[in-house]
Specification:
This protein is mostly helical and 74 residues long. The chain has a domain at 27-73. 34% of the residues lie in helices and 5% in strands. It has 3 helices and 2 strands. Strands 1-2 form a two-stranded antiparallel ribbon. The termini are far apart.
Length: 74
């Protein structure tokens, strides 16, 4: 039996990568959902920030906040 190792992308969130076997599967699509105030935006910004530090591109899409609100909250 051959076991294929899945390449993973670290989230940059301390402790989370240990829980999910080292990060998200590379090239996967991840949707983060939850109630207001549960840390979705903070999580997304941390993930993108960690990627930017490594020279990777990132996209953040929000339908709720205006640009100025987003910048001040970040």
């Amino acid at each position: 039996m051959v076991i294929e190792m899945i390449e993973r992308v670290p989230t940059g969130v301390q402790g989370l990568d240990d829980l999910i076997d080292g990060g998200f599967p590379k090239n996967s699509i991840v949707i983060v959902s939850g109630e207001p105030g549960t840390g979705k935006t903070t999580f997304a910004l941390q993930f993108i920030y960690e990627g930017v530090k490594k020279g990777e591109p990132g996209v953040f899409i929000t339908f709720e906040e205006k640009v100025n609100e987003h910048y001040s909250n970040a």
